[in-house]
Design brief:
There is one protein chain. The chain has helices at residues 2-18, 25-40, 67-83, 88-104, 131-148, 150-161, 197-205, 215-220, 264-281, 328-332, 339-349, 378-393, 395-400, 404-412; strands at 57-58, 64-66, 107-108, 111-112, 115-117, 129-130, 177-181, 185-189, 225-228, 231-234, 256-257, 298-300, 303-305, 356-357, 360-361, 365-366, 371-372, 376-377, 416-417. The longest helix has 18 residues, at 131-148. By secondary structure, it is of the alpha+beta class. Helix 2 packs across helix 3 (67-83), helix 3 packs parallel to helix 12 (378-393) and helix 4 (88-104) runs parallel beside helix 6 (150-161). Pfam families: Glycoamylase.
Length: 419
């Protein structure tokens, strides 16, 4: 009996070992550095109306927070507690304070303005009410609420359940609007595949029936197939790598198939490999591609560019832009899809002293121009941090997929789980 028990324990330990990836020294540096960005670049003044809000970037744009960065930051707190970088008491205090701030902020039917004054919580830069950035924020709110439970979960539920998702749906096209402003009304809509998958899951999972989106909203957006080097997949308009990553930071799509038979995890594997192959094929044109890959939205020598990407793109592969600039978050945000290729790039990045700083790797670089970004950008550090956590032990996936709202959202949209 004892021998059988010992064997069972050994088998269990072996299984656990298989499910846990050990981090290299440089990956651990990047992991902790990315966490510290969110812990240290938050408003920690408890008397402030913006307590808990997190800077959009650092050291640039002082005083400006983004709700997307705050959503990544709420998730980062969970990681920090689990890794022992902060105590659970410290994490809970920050989470409760942040949720209290969010409950008091101006909103449009539960949707938030994209950029905020970090000290007052007021709308900054006449920015838009943003569907996708609210989605990222809600993923962080629900993750932290689920992890800490109690008051944190009650406040997270309050924030989530007050969102009227149908208020941001086009009345005839069934697309999510991208934005709303009091001055201009509704603007743009998500008519093409991109990073917005989380919106459908969140919108379909709410228990408030009149706020819940119809299944047709998810199946309305265009799914355009393209290929590069044999990788065939549904591509985004600009082919920017972050569009294949963001929803996957929280939602574990690995065994879920929609009514069209699409598995979005495998789709992102193919997209990441295509991006890698494109960079390898163009090493002679751009020096940065000799040591890295991952063309995605980031800072460039000419400023921030959200149009950087790799083929396939647009209707005829002309929508994406390539200027030789690489963001480390491109490869690292795909580490769950392409671990070997991502780790190869990481080790090369850490050989460049100009790219490394107090929060790990800076936003981007361009070797043709000998240019290195001076800033860290919250959303880029965020996708890096969360994907490393999922690569290590599936931490965020395990917490998020255990939230009833998320399971209900997948089921209501017609997704089927196939082991």
């Amino acid at each position: 009996m004892l021998k059988r028990l010992s064997f069972s324990i050994l088998l269990l330990l072996f299984t656990i070992t298989l499910a846990t990836n050990q981090l290299t020294d440089n990956l651990l540096k990047e992991y902790k550095g990315s966490f510290l960005y969110f812990w240290e670049q938050a408003n920690t003044n408890k008397d402030s109306l913006g307590y808990g809000l997190i800077r959009d970037r650092y050291p640039g744009s002082p005083g400006i927070a983004s709700i997307a960065s705050t959503g990544f930051g709420l998730t980062a707190i969970v990681i920090g507690v689990e890794e022992g970088w902060i105590t659970k008491e410290e994490g809970l205090q920050r989470v409760l304070g942040t949720l209290n701030t969010l409950l008091k902020l101006d909103n449009f039917h539960g949707f938030f303005y994209h950029f905020l004054d970090i000290n007052t919580g007021k709308r900054a830069w006449n920015s838009e009410v943003s569907t996708i950035d609210t989605g990222i924020l809600m993923c962080g709110v629900l993750t932290a609420g689920k992890y800490f439970g109690g008051q944190a979960w009650e406040k997270a539920k309050q924030l989530y359940e007050r969102i009227n998702w149908n208020k941001m749906i086009h009345p005839t096209k069934n697309y999510f609007f991208m934005a709303y402003t009091p001055e201009r009304g509704f603007e743009g809509y998500w008519d093409f595949y991109a990073e917005q998958l989380m919106l459908y899951i969140l919108g379909a999972g709410t228990p408030v029936e009149k706020y819940r989106i119809d299944q047709n909203v998810y199946y309305a957006f265009r799914r355009s197939y393209g290929s590069y080097k044999g990788e065939n997949f549904i591509h985004s308009w600009f082919g920017s790598l972050f569009t294949y990553q963001y929803s996957h930071a929280w939602i574990d799509f690995r065994n879920w198939y929609d009514k069209f038979g699409v598995n979005w995890f495998q789709n992102s594997v193919a997209a990441s490999l295509a991006n890698y192959n494109f960079c390898m094929d163009n090493k002679d044109k751009f020096k940065s591609f000799t040591i890295g890959w991952g063309i995605t939205a980031c800072d460039t020598p000419k400023g921030y560019n959200g149009l950087l990407g790799a083929p396939p793109s647009g209707n005829n592969n002309t929508a994406h832009q390539v200027d030789g600039t690489i963001a480390p978050s491109g490869a690292l945000g795909s580490i769950v899809f392409t671990p070997k290729e991502s780790l190869w790039a990481l080790e090369n990045y850490y050989k460049m002293p100009s790219l490394v700083g107090k929060y790990g790797l800076k936003d981007s670089f361009n070797l043709d121009l000998n240019w290195y970004a001076s800033d860290y950008i919250g959303i880029d550090k965020g996708i890096t941090l969360l994907m490393i956590a999922n690569y290590k032990n599936e931490l965020i996936w395990r917490i998020f997929m255990d939230i009833p709202y998320i399971r209900n959202g997948l089921n209501n949209l017609g997704f089927v789980y196939k082991k």
